Amino acid sequence: MYDVYxxxxxxxxxxxxTPLVSLHHLDVVEPIFxxxxxVKALQRLMLPMKLDSAGLIQQSICYDSSKxxxxxxSWGFAIQIFRGILxxxxxxxPSRTFLNWYRRADYTAYAFNTRPVARNPCQKPFVFYMTSxxxxxxxxxxxxxxxxxxxxxxxxxxxxxxxxxxxxVFVYKRPDPQLWDRSPRRNCCRVLESKRKRLVVDVGLCGExxxxxxxx
Length: 216
Fold this sequence. Notes:
Oligomer: single chain
Low-confidence stretches: none
Number of strands: 10
Order of helices and strands: EHHEEEHEEEEEE
CATH superfamily: Mannose-6-phosphate receptor binding domain
Largest sheet: 8 strands, mixed
């Protein structure tokens, strides 16, 4: 349990491999989804929770080798796409979008490592928030959709593929009630399709040769 306030994005987008039990002090934190009220934001989070509570906000990290991107999936909440290949150790550290409940304490007072919000315009992630999720009863597969959070993005001079061309990300994931029997092992994700306007990702158990361990 962490007592923080402000913007919870950094904490939720890199949630540790533990169940999301509750959210506290909602009166002093910003809505977890943009452009909606706190109540509507929580109602939206309830949709994936009802379909796969064990997987809610669990982070998976993978790479789009064709574009040179790092993809961080916080299932049922948000996706971050970074230019370049970042190590899992870096991506699994929450970015400091939130503040310590005790005003006199800084980020060193947390019981976990954090990383500063990127200042280099090329290192700022592109964020996609979940807009809908449904269960395909035939395949027993959830299909969640994430739309890009459209906000001004600083100009990047790196000569590489630009994630701003993406409009949506789709994530396929099978509900896994036994997820916590395998904790602290993360799920793996794989990029299935990478086109100009959309990205399709699969999240599930790690296969042979895939590694997605929590790095201590």
